[in-house]
Predict the 3D structure of the following.
Amino acid sequence: MAKLTLATDDTGAPEIFASLQGEGPSAGMPVAFIRLSRCNLACTWCDTAYTWRFGQDDQDDERPHRDGITYDRKANQIALTVKDAATKIEQHGQKRLVITGGEPLLQGGALADLLALLPDMEIEIETNGTTKAPSHVDIRVDQYNVSPKLAHSGNAAELALLPERLEFYASDPRAYFKFVIAEPSDVDEVLELQRAYRFRPGHVFLMPEGTDSATLREREAWLAPLCLEHGFRMSDRLHIHLYGDERGT
């Protein structure tokens, strides 16, 4: 039976939980989450680096992070059969499932098997936009939350901003784009991408980078008028205000 590689929560259990979606077009919606491990990018400000930045004997550790923290792979990854994962998801009693990471579409084959066991759930996938869902996953997806990584993430554009993938998601009405913004100048990069790929009106969110309420509020003060000026939607990070920067929230 196919297995998924998941992140762990603070107890070492698979990070499958129920919460309110904190970001993007579904913010405030009650959902179940499953967080998969591994990522093909490395954002210097990533708040889930425990899904990819493992010990010094691991090649992933060469990728930089501003905190300089590394994680023990055995303590932060767990393999789970798709059947066991589906059972844990159903136990939370939610109608909608958010599949997040890391980069969840790196495990597309096993995801297809998981979704086959959850035929009645609405499916929302959070992706960095560099990968493509296999057809047996794509047919089940109700919403893509695509978060392309801008220059301040520390990822090279040739790795993070793939034209064929951005064109694919820009043409899909299920896809919403969520850009992490750390400085006002980051919005200029979003505007360049908007001109190049003609994202659908109302499908672009700007979200302040930050893992505490004070930082988010400070950045939202200058981000809000920029959203008004350019016609973008603004996303808060509701879970940070409610629970702090914690796993399983």
